[in-house]
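Figure-free illustration: sequence to structure, shown twice.
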Amino acid sequence: MAYGVNDTGAPLRVRSLPTPFKRRAPHGHLQRLIATLPLLLLMGTSAIPAAAAPSEAMQAQLDARIEAQPLGDALRALARAANVQILFDAKLVADLQSPSLQGPLSLRAALDELLRGSQLEAFELAPGIIGLRRVSTPSAASSASSSVRSRPLASTSTSEITPLGELLVTAQRRAERPQDVPISLSVYDVSAMDVQGSKTIDDIARMTPGIDFERGLNYNSESSNISIRGIASAAGTATTGVYIDDTPIQGRQLSFGTFNAYPQLFDLDRVEVLRGPQGTLFGSGSEGGTMRFITPTPDLHAASVYVRTEGGWIDHGAGLAEMGAAGGVPLVDDTLAIRLSASYRYEGGYVDRIDWHTRDTIDPNSNANTTRTARVALKWAARANLILEPSIYYQDRHLDDTAAWWSPVPGTPDPTGNQFDSPFRNGNAIMNPSTDAFSLSALKINWNAASVRLFSSTSYFKRDQTAVSDYTEYDRAVLLGNPYPPPGVQAPTFWAVDQSYWTQELRIESNDTTLRTKWTAGIFYQHAYESTIENVFDPALVRQLRLPVYKGGYLYYQEPFGGIDSQTAGFGQADLRASDALSLTLGLRYGRSGYSGYAYYAGPVVGAPVSSTGRIAEYPVTPKAGLEYRVDPTTLLYTTMAKGYRIGGVNPAVGRYCYGGPDSPLGSIGLAQVPPQYHSDDVWSYEIGDKSAFQDGRALLDVSAYLIRWNGIQQNVQLTGCGFQFTANLGAAESKGFDVQGEIKVGSVLLGGTLDVSDARYTQTVRLPSASLSVVQDGDHIPGSPWKAQIFAQADFPLLARQGYTRIDFEYAAALTNPVPGRNPLDGGYGLWTAGVPAQSYTSLRAGMKWGGYDLSLFAQNLFDTQPRLTVNQDVASPTGGTPLLYVITWRPRTLGLTLTYHY
């Protein structure tokens, strides 16, 4: 989109307004209107103020002198001359050239002249705010004699990738360019994700500065952990907010089997990654940052189609295939529209499951997965200033088997006869399937008056995740010290996660661009139920150890174990423009967060059945303050200070074998019981940044540096000897670093890259009473790469009278060689073979051709077939070596294929 400037040259802030409105609502009636909104919706729309005449801005006379140039640049020049904002999607004006323009003309006449023959029209969103859209029925003005024409092929935009400065984001709950947002952020729209080949959260995390993402923290490779700027924890509640539109879906880490769901990257408008705590506007869980997956809304004025199909082959494995289609159409022009989408993606496996006793391959390429998505969205302009948007999103993802492969510990006895010396082979006794299905139903309501905008989001998120893990090796490693079972033995563990979240947010924000203060205020409520089960069935081991038989042979049996998070909060943020160049931001969130948890588990490794309940309530306050200084229209300097937090929780009682005298697992650390609660922890973040544009917007550079202090960290304490753990607030940490993002367009070549340098470490030694070893040492690093870099280059060129292009992306993450808690001999969790963070490099290549709305391309992902050991698990780790088998996860091997997309 494009943006006007005021008479000082400082860019004006922009907010998206869905449809025109024309009359101001009386300020005195605001409170009554909010209170009676549900009644107005039930009664119809007769109570909404009617439309009035356009403002005088469109009739203002201009002495405009604009040379013939790309249409987007001409519209920006007109916006500056008229002191208005002109909003448009960059894709609408791609490849269009404007005529020259000589005044005097009215703004209305100037727009008509610039848009003549473009099949675009201008309409007034509000006084001084003008939008562009396609005309519903092309008129005679769109004839071939039009002065608006396509530019020559050699100078077309680089494969229609919208430059960073032309995207819209809602990181501050209002529509703005990234260059105008005083936050370190990354944003990817659909065109960028297509050309980069991004399909999942793994792809986004790999190329985004500040993110650490790890798969396979348990024995199913779908499990994951995500963190931003080193604020990472495997205990308690989430440190990173995960949003689909306005609904947070991140969950608690109730057990090894609980992890977040993420939407597939199909039919998304964009993905926003906000670095640094976002507690004021996004609440609990956004302690280190927030990831937002934004879905497209139906278009009331024009039909659209997006189709993507893909086929390919995976080295060391099988093929992949994808088909997806999305489209929207106005059902009643300017009033009612619908958008539908559906997709199916199959990725073949590359890990063979073998019977190491017989050397037979039981299941070649066993870890195939499929993902299906579907979405229906409506948009109803009940009145010119009232928009209702109901939608339903559904996704299910099924993994046939784990992607983890076996790797014997060097120098240990190997009864398999070296069958696992090469990667991508495992000897699991059974498959490890996983199915993760969720739906999100939502209703968004937008009501606009001339001075305020009211937004309501009501949603229900439902998720059912089930999995089976092979504990045949694990049980024997823990209880017998040998992970290699005899033939014919099986020990399945059954996992399940159930999430049911009701979320309501109501926001009101200023809508008058003439005021020096812009503000947003709102209330938030969420009722989030989450539960999990983990049932370990191993009748052979029960018989071998002569343990009591429970439910036919369960070692451990967990009834639903979980609880309810409830949050109620009020929040507000105001931007106060002290001068044309200087602005002050103040924000505050205050709320009540409560959690009530319950647990029940039994089985021979527990002893007597355990049942416990608990609850906690907290009243968090999360302020934010910042300064912005506009050096000139292309340079923004900012500094922010912000607080983030995550809610506490309760510790369930532990098994009978954890209790006893001084030598018991609890007694050895000076405890008679586990602490009944753990409390919220918090961070304070201090950031400075610079966002600059050069060469008329053809070069962009964003730089930010930060210092984050983390206190009272929620950390797990392992009770060695009884298999349980609890969570406590232990110690402090500090994360500091900087990130850089830039891109530049040179002719038909687009170059860009990112650099992220971070140092996240604990700043206190935590030693439990009577314990000889610490939980963490002062100076231990939080696992994560110390620096990451990503570069890309994309070039356009004529090809067979069409537009050809090539693109290469390269990502590199340096190894972390500093000590982390699991690799420090002074810490109780030290394991000789505990993996560190390896060096990682990943290269993607794409070459294609475009004609009409089609894009046909060849691609190579993981071009050099790198296989870093991203995740390494061991059944029992110890300073002397532990059990002799490791389980390793790496990237999908080199993948070659063909993609065809169609846009209309």
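We now fold a second protein in the same way, so the two outputs can be compared directly.
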Amino acid sequence: MENVFFSEPRLLWALPIVIILGLIGLHQKRNNKLIIISRTTIFCLLIIALANPYMVVTEITQSKRPLITVISDETASMEIFDFNTAQRIHENLPNSQYRMFSGMSTPLGDKILQYAQQGGSLVLVTDGYNNQGMELKEALSLARSSNVTVFGIETEPVFNDASVEISGSNTAVLGGDYPFSVTLRWALDEFEGTLVVYADNNEIFRDDLSDAGKTASIKMAHNFKSTGNHVLRANIVSNDDQQRENNEYLKAVYVVPKPEVLLITDEDSSPLASVLNQHYQLTQMSEFTSISNKYKTVVLDNQKYSTNMNALKDYVRDGGGLVVIGGTSSYDYGGYRDSTLEDVLPVNSYPSRFEGGKTVVLIMDISGSTRREMSVGGTTFLEYEKALSIELLKSPEFQDDRVGLVVFGTEAFVGFKPTTIAGKHFMINERISSLSPKTGTQEETQLDDGLRLAWDLLNSSGGEGELIVVSDGRVREYPEAFARSVEMITDIEVTTHLIEVKSFADAPGGFQELAAKTGANYHLALYPGSVTIRTEELADLEEPIKEDDLEEGLYGLRILNPNHYITSDLNLDANLTGFNDVTPKSGSQRLVVMHSGKPVLTTWRYGLGRVASMSTDDGVGWAPDIYSARNSQLISRTVNWAVGDPRPEFGRIDADDGWLGTPLEITIASQNLPKIGSSQVEKVGENRYSAILNPNRKGVYYIGDYGIAVNYPREFRDVGLNPEFSNLIMASGGRLFSESEVKSNLLEEARKKSKITVQQRESQRVILLFVALIIFLAETIFRKLKKVKR
């Protein structure tokens, strides 16, 4: 009855009345009970039939003549392709529909949903870029859930085109090196031209480029000599370039005075002070007494704890920065332990209880899909996953670690809690080898369930964490679980490796997309390739330097977290002769460690402020390498991070570079309602306002003295064919075809996938009327026979 519905359910209220009347008749008449029972039953059946009971039946039909729609992208960026390709494909697909869209933007995701028809196929003739409306990945996923198959056409540009873009912070400090990158993109495999970069119309870079590939990024720096707004401009000069619109890019940089930094030190001069003097307006004192809000950051250099330092707690909580440098009078030597100052620090002033390695949680997929064979008569996906995992844990990279096992699929559970790998290989191998999916019809658990258990294991285990997920990658089939997995991997903030097991390189899978959304490391394990090679790839083929490899009394350093602002793209080559032995607090981040794992640079947020702990000295005794020219960026970046935004708290404007024709959001920190031309300003928080600017020309827009650069339409930024287009199409169940394959292969593939799901009502009233008639006839015949016999 759970699947039975009624068109007129109100009529069912008559049933109790008929049943009550029938019971009364049975009670009053003793001789006609059979008639009363049969007539009551018949009336009940008639009432139910009048209510029109029905069941919803789902039918899947497959069409021999599939509904195919060719979508032609004729936007401005497609001018470098053959515009007649889509028309030729339409002519080669009998009974297909032809749709096109044009303009200065590409809402490809919106067009997919607009023209999608259940059970049909879409053929996209496009460069694969989407710069407006719904994201392409989301649109493809929604289309697939509606039984719509999306195919793509492999198209190659006929003409070359190049674009240029400058990326970097919108704020620079007076007199300091402002780092930025110039990115070049071109459509064909090679590019020849000249790149010229200007700062306020003064040429600062020129180079003739002749590169292969499809993109190039050039890092450079500039030192601005005055405060206020400055403009960087990059130009491409090339004869091999179809469109000139995207050959120039502007970037507005707002230069502020050097932030004021307070250094508390007993040293008259030190390598630390020399580095700080180059980048900041430095005030140097020998003793901490009080703090003024004019200082953006306080640096304590090898200072013993005093009660005056208690004022730093409120200073940092309200948004100030604090950097503590170690030495023979700080941390464990300076009375920090259990002090108010230690409350603010990301470390405790006692030796680390480091056990020699990190905690690695292996997450394995044993869902029903892993029972599939990777080749005819060959091994299954699960068997290959198990062999890969066992081989992986034999790598020297993991021998000092603790490993735990989490399984998801037919159910999610902990295979074993983190345990030291050394000496436990037999147990680990046995547990992994014995895994098998349970049979049954229960709903399978997804990756997010496995991640949740893994996160619990990491939380209950001290030390550095790392996740390794081994799966066939079929996570995109479950959009809600996929979204939760993205959120969890992002929030966990530990190194995550996604190993996708495939039988061939172009097989559909979702791990590449998951890695792109989360910053996780993606690895392809292609059957029957050597799992040893894949293990080496995961370990990056780099053996960590051991303390024994260094000279006696030296401690080598390495970057532990390369994704932080301080350590990103930083090359560190330094050794120590001494350090303060400290223990990171829960919630802190170790950025730089010794090869033994003991922390050297640890950071965290305290209230509104930022705190960095350097557990070695100012370069006078233990750590001169850190303050040398090749490594000094570590110190300047640490203080920059603690300073945060060097601009004043109020009157501050934030806006990214804009694109012509794309609305630009502007955020203003102000105590009063600001006015920005004709734009409507809304309050979005305490002393925070937001406005939308709709630029109608290229150039620099000024709000007061703050400049915002607006460049060519975003349509012209990405040129050529999107390298991710093929992966996106295959992840949604489609394929890319060449133009020569359209008439045969694409048409046949569209027929196979042209499934239409229809839900229909099947009325059940005929059955009820037939039963009522049978009961009436049976009762009549019974009475006639009884009369004849009598």
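Summary for the second example: The first strand starts at residue 4 and ends at 6.
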